Queue: 4 jobs
Job 1
Amino acid sequence: MNLTWEPITLELKTAFRIAHGVSERRHNVLVYLDEGVGEGAGVQYLGESQTRILEYLVLAAEQFSDDPIHIEKILKSLPLGSSSGRAALDIALHDLWGKRQGIPLHKLLGINSQQMPSTSLTIAMDHPDKMAQSARQSGWPVLKIKLGSANDEAIVRSIREETDAALRVDANAGWTREHAADLIPRLVEYDLELVEQPLPVGDIEGLRQLRERNLGVKIFADENIRTPQDVIDHVEAVDGVVIKLMKSGGIRPALQMIELAQSFDMQVMLSCMVESSVGVTAAAHLASLCEYVDLDGPLLIKNDPYQGVIYRGAQLCLPKGPGLGVLKRIEN
C-alpha cells in the first residue's frame, strides 16, 4: 500500500472557546492509503498536535503490509505513540477495506445504521447573552453547552429561556469537587440530560462521590477516557463515558470500548474533536451502537475538504458509497 499524508488547516466559523482555551482554526492531518483516506486531529489536552501526528506517521510508514484485509495484524504492528496518528491510519485502513470490497463500512462491521441518535450541536463559551442567541438561532433540538467560567449558571439559565432543546453541559474538567457539588443541583433545575467531565482529569474518586450524591442528572467522563482500562476504572464512578476515535486510536479500539462500557451498564456518547467530514463520518458509522451522539465537527468549520455524513437537522445520515463513503470536494 502507498502511504502518504497531507497537513490541513480547518478554519472555524466562529472562535471556539472552552475551558482549555480558545482557537479560530485547527491543524489536522489527512492520511491516504491508496484510495483509502483517514484523518488525525490532535487532542490538545493529551499533548497531541499536527507536528506530533506527522512525526508518528514517519515512524509508522514502514509497518504496512500489502493487503488491507489484515487490519488487525497491521494495527497491532504499529508503534506506540500518537493516538490521533493511529486513528488516522486505522480510519484509512477501514476506508480502503470497504472500498476494495465495494461495501459501506458499517455493513462490513455488521452495524445497522437505521437507528442513530440525534447529534448535539456545541455552543462554545462566550457571554451568556451571546450563547443564548446562538442557541436560539441554531434551532437545534439537542445542544451541548461549554461551561467552566464564572458565569456558568447564568449561561444555562439564559439558554434555557431561549430554547426548549435537550441540554447537555460540558465543563471540560473545569470545576473542583466542591464547586461541582454546589453548582450541579442548581443547573439541574434547568432540565439537563447530562453533565460531561465536571472534574479535573484523573479525579475518578471525585466523580464517584458526585454520582453517589444522586444529583438528578447523569455524569459522563470524557477527558479521563482513552483506553479500555480507563473504562473499567470508571465502573460505578460515572453513568457514561465519552468515546472519540482520536482518543482511542481509531475504529477498532473504539468498538471494543463501546462494547466494554455497555457490558458494565454504562452508557456511551460518541463524540469528536474539531474534525472534517473524514473523521466524523468514520465515527458516524458506529453511531447507532451508542446512546448519545455528539458529531458536529463539520458544522463548525468553513473549509471542509470532503463531503460525508449528511445532516438532516440533527439526524445523521451516512453516505451510500463504499468504505467511509466520503468524497473529495471539488474546488471552484
Job 2
Amino acid sequence: MSSNYRKGFRSVYKLTAHMVLVTKYRKKAINQERLERLKVIFKETLDKWECELLEFNSESDHCHLIVEFKPEVQLSKLIANLKTVSSRLIRKEYPELSQKYFYGKPYFWTGAYFVATCGGVTVEQLKAYIEKQASPKK
C-alpha cells in the first residue's frame, strides 16, 4: 500500500476534493491582498476540521481549493463553514466590499458551490484493477 495514505482508527484513506467558491453576483471582489487573506482563513478553518489545504488559487470572482479530508467529514458542512467563516472575516476586514460590490448587503459568496472528488487514478484505471482481481475458486 502507498505510504501517502492516511490512517484512522478503523480506516486507511486518501480523500481529496476540488471545490470552487464563487463571489455573489460573480463580482470581481478578489484582489491579491484579499486572495492572500482568504488563503490564511481557509487554512486556519481547515485545521480546525483536521483537513489540509493542498492547493489554492483564485481569479477575481471565484476560488479553487483542493482539500484533503477525513472520512467522517461531511463535505457540505465543511464547505458551508468555509464560506461562512471566510465571508464574515473578509467583510469585517474589508468593510468597503459590501457597498462597492454587493449593494450594501452582507454578502461575499454565492449560495451555490462546486465540489468534485479527485485522486491519483481515473475510474477506468480502478475498474481495470478490480477486474484483474483473482476470484475465489469453487
Job 3
Amino acid sequence: MEKINPAILKTKQHFQILDGLRGVAALGVVTFHFMEMAYSDYSQNFIGHGFLAVDFFFCLSGFVIGYAYDDRIGKMGVMEFFKSRLIRLHPLVILGSVLGVLAFLFDPFGGHTEVYSAGRIALVFLCSILLIPFGAMTDRGFNLFSFNAPAWSLFWEYMANIVYAFVLCKLKRGYLIGLAIISAGALCFVACRSHNLMGGWSSTNFWDGGARIFYSFTAGLIVYRFNWIIKNRLGFIGMAILLAAALTMPFSNNWNRITETLVVLFYFPLVVALGAGANLTKGFERLCNFFGKISYPLYMTHYSVIWMFGNYYAKYKPATGQLSLIIIISLILLVGFAYLVMVLYDIPVRRYLNNKRQRELAK
C-alpha cells in the first residue's frame, strides 16, 4: 500500500463570505426553531422558511467538498476521506446527543420522562450518537434523532459524502448535469406530493431528506466543477441580505411548492456562486471567520434548548413582547455557548484526533 503524505490532509483556504453565510443560515435555523414552537401556523412566522437554510447548507457542502477534495481524494484514498469527515463532523454529533438527553431528563419546564424505560432512553441515545435513524419518542415529535433533531441533516450529509467518495468524485461534468436533472425531478415530485420541502426529519417524510440533499449537493458540486463563480461587489452584507430574503419570504400553503422549489433549484446555487465571487472588505473578515467557525457548533447544540423553550411556552404562554425578548436573549446566549463549545471541546478534540492521525501516517 502506497504511503500517504500527511501534508495532503491539510485544510485548504476558505471562501470567507461563504463561511459568513453559513453562520447567517445557522442563525436563521435557530430562530426558525424558536418561532415554530410558538407559532404552529407558519404564515404567522416572520422566518417561516427558515428550514430552507438546510438546503443552502447542502448546496454549500457540495461546493466546498468539491473544492476541498476533488483534486486530492484520489491521492488520499476513500478511507482517509471518511476519517477526515468523521473528525470534522462527529464530535459535535456526540455532544449534541449528550446535551439532548440531559435536556430530556432534567427539563425544568416539563416533559414525560416517566413514559420511557431506561433501556428505551439508552437505545435512543445510542442511535443518536451513531446517527442511526430511530424516530421512537412521541413527545419528541417522532424525530429521527429524538435527542438532537437537526442531526437528520447530518445523516444525509454522511450519505452524500459516501456517494461522493465512491461515485461523484469520478463523475464527468456531463454525467453530473444529468444527475442534477434527475435529482431536480425527484425534488419537484416531493414538493408536489408534500406541498413543501420541509421534510426529512421524521420517519413519515424520511425520503424527502434524500431528495433535498440529492439535488442541492449535486448543484453545489456543479457550481464548483464548472467554475460558476460570479465576481461581484455585493460584499458580506449584500450576500447576507440575499440569503435572508429566501428564509423570510412569505409562507403560503398555495404557493410553497413552487416558491420553495425555485429557491432550492436555482436561487441557492446562484447565492453560492455569488458568495464565492464576492469581494470581502477587511472590516467584515473577522465577522465572517467567527460566523463560519460557530455555525456548526450552534447548529448541533441548540435544539436541547428548543425543546425546553417549547415546554416553557406551552406552560406559561408569554406575551409577544416577552416572547421576543426571550428569543433574542436566547440567541445571544446560544451563540456564546456555541463559541465555548468550539473552543473548549470541538477544536481540542479534532486537534487531538488529527495529530494522532498524522503520527500514524508519519510512521
Job 4
Amino acid sequence: MAEATEILTTWFGAFAIGPTGVVRAYPFPTEPAALADRIARRRQGQRAEEEQRLIDDLGDHAARTRDRRLVGGPVTLGGTSVVDLDPAAYGHDPDGLRKLLLLDADRALAAAFDPSSHVDEAVRAVHDLDGILNTLRERIASWSARDAPLPDPEDAKAFDEALEASAERDRGDPLAPMVPELVDGRRGLTQRYLELRRSRRELEASVEKAVATSAPNLSALLGPGLAARMIAQAGGLDRLARLPASTVQVLGAERAFFEHLRGKAPPPRHGLLFLHPDVQGAPRRLRGRLARALAGKVAIAARIDRERAPLRPSLAESFRRRAEEIRRPAKGHDGVNRPATPRPPRPARPSS
C-alpha cells in the first residue's frame, strides 16, 4: 500500500483512497437501522465496524485521514484527497442520506424524551386554573352580592359552600320577575366555577400521585406537591438532576436573582424551597442555611430518581438530622447553649 493512502469515511462506507482512486472499499449495510447505528457511533466518537476493519487491513502501511476518530498507529492526521464517490455504485440509494438523517433524528428525539415533561404541563395547568378560578370567584361574588351578602372570598371553604347553595336555589330569585335569563346565566356561571374547582382538585391529586411514583425520593424529601413544582420549574426531572445544588436552592427566585445581579437587591436565599415546612417555619436568620442543606439533598434525590433507583429513606432522614443541627443553639466557650447572635443589618446600597 502506497504511503499516499488516505482513509475517507462517508455516510455509506469507509474507503482507502490512493493516487489513482479507491483502493479498498468497505460499504456500510443498506438497512436503515444499521446505517443509523453507524451514524450514532460516529457521533459518539467511536469507530464503525467497517472503519476498524479497513484500518486493520492496512496493517503497518502509513495512511492519513481528516477524521480524528481514526487517528492512531500508522494512521496520522492529514489528507487532501477530494474524491466524488457515487453511493449507487456501492448498493445505496442516492437519496438515502435524507432518509437516514430523518431516522436518526427520530431516534435522538425518542432517546431525549423526558416523561416528566407531562408533570411540567400539569403543574402549569393547575396554575392556569388558579388564575381562572380567582377571576370567576371575584366576579360571582360581586354579582351575587347584589342580592344577598356572601362570605368573604378569602374564606374559600365558606364561600364555595355558599356558591353551591346558590347554584341549587330555585327561580324564586328577586331578579327573576325582571330578568330571568340573567338568573339562569349566573347560575350556569356558578356551576362552571364549581366544575372547574373540582377539575383543579382532581388534576392536583393526579400530579401528586404521578410524582410520588416517578420521583419517590424527591416526593419523600419535599412532598409530592412541592416536588412537582420543582420539576416543573427546572423544566423536567432530567434537567433538575443536572443542576448544581446552588441553582436548585434559588429555583423560583429568578426575578430576585436578576435584581441582585443589577445591584438592586441582596442575593436570594431560597426560591420554591421556602415552601418546605422546615424552611418556612424556621427563624429568618436560619432559612438560608436550611434551604442550602435542603437543596443539596434535592440535587441528590433528583439524580437518584432520574436513574429510576428505588426509594432511599436515609436521604430524608439525613436532611432532618442536618436541620436539627442548624436549629440547635451554638455553644459558648463555657459549654452553655446560647442563641445565635443576630447579624447586623446590611448597609444601604448607594443609589446610582
